[in-house]
Amino acid sequence: MKNLLKLEELFMFALTIFLFSKLDFAWWWYPALLFTPDFSMVGYLGGAKLGAITYNFVHHKAVGISIFVLGIILAIQPLQLAGLILFGHSSMDRVMGYGLKYPDSFQHTHLGMIGKA
What is the DSSP string of the chain? Predict the structure, then answer.
C-alpha cells in the first residue's frame, strides 16, 4: 500500500509539471521555485507547535489547489504558478516520506516518523 500511495503522489507531482507546461513561464521557473515552500520551516524557530502550524499550512494540498484555481478564475498566471508549486512540492515531499507534521516534533508526520525504519 505504501508504494501505491507513493506512486499516486508521483503522478500528482507529474500533473503539476504538465500543468506548468501550459503556462507562459520559462522552464527554469519550476525547478527554481520548487523548494520555496520549505521556507515555512522557519516557524520551527518559534517551537514545534508553531512550526507544525506554518509547515502544515504551506504543505496542505488544498491550499495549493485553492491558489491555483483562484489564479484560473482571476486569469493570473503567477497565482496559478504559486498553486502548482505548493501542490507539486507537497506531492514530492510525500513521495519521499515527508508528511504533515504533528506538533510534538518535526520528525513526527502523518506518514510516520522521519528517519525511523
Answer: -HHHHHHHHHHHHHHHHHHHHTSSS-TTHHHHHTTGGGGGGGGGGG-HHHHHHHHHHHH-HHHHHHHHHHHHHTT-HHHHHHHHHHHHHHHHHHHTT--PBPTT-TTEETTEETT--
CA-closest candidate to residue 99, choices 109, 114, 85, 86: 109
85 touches 3 (CB < 8 A): no
The model's pTM is 0.93
Question: What's phi and psi for 115, nearest 5 deg?
Answer: 90, 0
Other residues' Cβ atoms within 10 Å of the Cβ of residue 53:
16
Model confidence band, residue 117 (pLDDT cutoffs 50, 70, 90)? low
Phi, psi values for residue 83, rounded to 5°: -65, -40
